[in-house]
Specification:
This protein is an alpha/beta fold and 237 residues long. Helix 4 runs parallel beside helix 11 and helix 7 packs antiparallel against helix 9. The longest helix is centred in the last third of the chain and has 24 residues. The radius of gyration is 19 Å and the shape is globular. The two termini are 22 Å apart. About 7% of the residues have low confidence.
Length: 237
């Protein structure tokens, strides 16, 4: 649904964004249009920052930012423009970097952060270190391969290109490539303290994003994304 080659393109400071020019991505790697600079007189500009829930699937008309724009224009003012700055797999630390390095230059009136699920899911299923971007360990290992000549990780990475080998030896290949088990042990994975650190990292990023946004004169809104796959009743559906 979300090919990494087009939805997680390496980008300075933000780790990754969508690949500019792929699908309906604009020059910044986001879906839809780029906010014009300078901002047109009278425009009320809202930037919606988040993960795949903001990025959406299918037609742009089905996305949260587009629906918000329609509601705002019908009920508030035709001058409201809502921009989709969703990035697949993005976590709150990357969103903070996006706000600091990109968003403020586009003069938003409102920054809306719609997230949380990726912060939880990424720590649980990918890089276990609280506050780290999705699969950051893979980037670390890639640097290690080239700088330190980690031949074992290089060989494992090449073998993961085989669907058959990934199916037969998932744990062995992932351990050799990313050494996730070692990271989990060091981070105290799944312990109560680890869960607290995941939450604390998220809250610290949201607070910083609020401070940056308001310092530039923008209103800041943080909306928590539902995470039903972490609840007990999810197993009933």
């Amino acid at each position: 649904e979300y090919p990494a080659s087009s939805t997680r393109h390496p980008t300075p400071y933000m780790m990754f964004t969508g690949l500019p020019g792929a699908d309906d991505h604009n020059a910044l790697g986001y879906r839809g249009r780029v906010p014009s600079r300078p901002k047109p007189p009278g425009e009320r500009r809202i930037l919606v920052v988040g993960g795949s829930a903001v990025y959406g699937k299918g037609q742009p008309e089905l996305t949260i930012p587009f629906q918000l724009q329609q509601l705002a224009r019908n009920r508030v003012s035709r001058s409201v423009s809502v921009y989709n700055w969703g990035v697949v797999s993005q976590v709150s630390g990357q969103e903070l970097a996006t706000i600091a390095h990109r968003a403020m230059a586009h003069e938003p009136d409102v920054v809306l952060l719609y997230d949380l699920a990726n912060d939880l899911y990424s720590s649980w299923a990918a890089d276990p270190r609280p506050g780290h971007p999705f699969n950051f360990v893979i980037s670390e290992r890639a640097v290690g391969i080239f700088q330190a000549g980690d031949a074992r990780a290089l060989a494992a990475g090449m073998l993961t290109q085989s669907n058959l080998l990934r199916a037969l030896f998932p744990l062995a290949l992932s351990d050799a490539t990313a050494r996730v088990d070692t990271l989990r042990a060091a981070a105290g994975y799944a312990s109560p303290r680890w869960e607290e650190e995941v939450a604390e990292a998220y809250l610290a990023n949201v607070e910083a994003a609020c401070r940056v946004s308001t310092a530039y004169g923008a209103h800041f809104v943080a909306a928590l994304q539902p995470v039903v796959f972490f609840t007990a009743q999810a197993a009933e559906f």
